[in-house]
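Chapter review. Work through the record for Non-structural maintenance of chromosomes element 1 homolog before attempting the end-of-chapter questions.
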Amino acid sequence: DTAMAAQMTDAHRRFLQVLMSKGITEGSEARRLHHHCCETDKVYYAHDKLDDFISTINRHLQPLFMQIRKGMSEEDGRAHYAVVNLAETEVTKMASDYTEIELELFRKTMDLIILSENGFASSTDILNLADKLKTKKMKKKEAEQVLKVFVEDKWLSEKNGEYTLHTRCIIEMEQYILSNYQDVARKCNICRSLAVQSQVCESCGIGMHLPCVRKYFKAQTEPRCPKCNEFWSCDIP
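Structure tokens for Non-structural maintenance of chromosomes element 1 homolog:
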């Protein structure tokens, strides 16, 4: 449909450039950027058309095997946009940025996070892995440095010595995680996307993102599992 195939303009190109340099952008920031780019490049701006604006960019990115994807922060449920490379899995993309031993530490950390109950791994547990790596042993000091870099590069995020996957990492690696951790990776029962930080039903084992839990139980007098209807025993955030 030719009417739909909106042209890529300088505003679109500018938006994409900024997004690529940031790696990930929060929703309200993306809306501001949309406005700024349209104004700067004198392109028609409609405040409620960000998703259309992005799909125009995505159509042009298709032959390059790239895509701007929307995801949500597991912490507060806010929308985020990230540029994802579809041609190579994210793990191979990381391989060009990190050494073999750093990647091994990352994969082991990811194992801990995904296998955990709540989507977090403590720095103590991660640092204990460091001297058991196959590639070669890593000193604790060195491992701490590497973790810091993973946080700076937005693959991990850290809170009070506990590490989890950064929103950017989840948006980029969702497919990889779902296929590589088939038995343990959960999709949120409410929004159907990968849930790393989640609450789990003690009776039937379904998981829900914390923001989804909050929203879902807001309307209910007593919290019951949306799947098995048993009492929800976790504290509602």
